[in-house]
Amino acid sequence: MNIEPWFTVGCERLYSRAPTLEFFNGRELLQVSTYGFDQWMVWSPGQEGATSLVDLPLDGHLEFLCIEPVIVDRPNCLCPGGVFSGGLSVARSVDNQKKMNSRG
């Protein structure tokens, strides 16, 4: 079975929980967390879709991955005058190389 990588064909996935995500981007360990949201949308335009993003360099799809906090399946209904509070934070690990080495 030959499966194309996500950065070639693109992807869009909805994850139904929004825990803090931790991943290594090739240079540093990042922690992405949110409040007020209960889902993550992870997407990439792929090679073909990237051509419609005018601010993305020619081979930008090779390094493009968007992670967004969202509310899709369970809308948050507000009464008139109601307020929604939500946010996203990205933190770099201070000692990322030490953490990456300890993971095996």
Would you kindly provide a written description of the structure presented here, covering whatever features stand out?
The chain is α+β, with helices and mostly antiparallel strands. It has one domain. Helix content is 15%, strand content 32%. The protein has three helices and six strands, in the order H-E-E-E-E-H-E-E-H. The strands form two sheets. It has a three-stranded antiparallel beta sheet with strand order 1-4-5. It has a three-stranded antiparallel beta sheet with strand order 2-3-6. Strand 2 and strand 3 (29-35) form a beta hairpin. The mean pLDDT is 82.
Topology as H/E string? HEEEEHEEH
Count of separate structural domains: 1
Secondary structure category: alpha+beta
Any idea what the shape is?
A: globular
Low-confidence stretches: none
Oligomer: single chain
Number of strands: 6
The residue-averaged pLDDT reads 82
Query: Strand order of the main beta sheet, please?
Result: 1-4-5
The percent of residues in helical segments reads 10-25%
Largest sheet: 3 strands, antiparallel
Instruction: Measure the end-to-end span.
Output: 29 Å
